[in-house]
Amino acid sequence: MIWSLKNWQRHAILQREPITEAIWRDVLARLHFLRGLTQSEITQLRQWATIFLHDKHINGAQGLTITEEMRVTIAAQACILILKLDLDYYHDWLEIIVYPGKFILDHEYTDEQGIVHAVQMVASGESWLAGPVILSWEDVADTDNKRGYNVVIHEFAHKLDMLNGAANGFPPLHRNMDPQAWTAIFSEAFEVFCEQVERADEWVIDPYAATSPAEFFAVLSEAFFVKPCEIKQFFPRVYQQLAAFYQQDPAMRWTTEEVAYE
Questions:
Q1: Which one of 18, 130, 161, 170 is separated from 183 by 20 to 30 angstroms, measured CA to CA?
Q2: Could you give the CA distance from residue 152 to residue 138 in angstroms, rounded to a whole number?
Q3: Which residues in the chain show pLDDT less than 50?
């Protein structure tokens, strides 16, 4: 009964609040990393984005006016993570706050001597446990960079990670996944990457990933979707774990598309 009611409600939303064809087409044209999606996957992504926009409030900060195209741009990128999962993964929070550009975060931390320090950080995104996602529109709109950077995917990966509590790089895994394998593979890859950053080696992903296991998971998640072939090459075991978790294989999609156009 609950399942039927939920699906009835979602069907009603899709009928009442569709994303217009013109806006959807324009958004897809800018999100190049979505290439290779099948028509059925594009349809599913559009449906998830439509329901997502019904469920979430997207509000501008510092006088930023949120247009429908901006809303769809955020929703499509947020929903690529749960394309093969379900919108219930985003169930426990309501708001997305969008600044025109990078914003200042005030943070406090306690050092080893017990002294509390207040610091300010410039950020392009932040996710709060059971609270809002905060984004910089300047960074959201940067969808064609070559760095594997995507602030929306990054922050929504944190949201998935937080389903177990505070973000720690260990989201709730599916029943057919081995938690010990996930922990071992990610821990080893994180340690190796931190050593590479310390040596100032060339990095396949943003060195910010060395900050913590939570950031390692979020950075790898964005790169998994934005430059999957490189992640599969340099982090093959991590790629397999991410493919199992997201139930997607972006590298295969990209390779298949390239072969089709040869």
A1: 130
A2: 11
A3: 1, 259-262
